[in-house]
Amino acid sequence: MKKVENYEISLNTMALIEEFHLEYNTIIYDVNGVYCTNQTVKSLLEDACMKRLSTYEGRLKSVRKLLNYSRKTPLLICPQTQLCAFPLASPQKYGCPWIFAHHVLSRRKINKDQLAVTFHNGASLSFNCSLGVFEKQLGRTANCLHYYQRMMSRTKQLEN
Q: What InterPro entries does the entry give (predicted)?
């Protein structure tokens, strides 16, 4: 695991996991490798939104209002590139993992409250989360992306 000073979330980011460690705060699973950083998960997500001319809170507020997802709200970081992440627990809970949906290849139940997620690059991670919660979060993320695409399609129709 390589330590990085300033990681930027991109389409290569697969998962972010907050970790209580003396030398870093977050483990980053990326298509190109596994990294650690002193940045917190929230600061990484906030920076990613700001680089795309919004805020973490603003993105969440929109999704909560428009789709009525008041808890474990998916974060639509960049609608144009469909860069979207979802939490597996309450983001206020320390250690909450964030998954970037477009990298998920498969998932399988290990036991009642644990599952394994395999990503398109072959990497596999296990999480303390039920398969049902994971499926719900993945579905909410798909709904967010679909909602945005519908709105863009309507806007284009009105312009023509």
A: ComK (IPR010461)
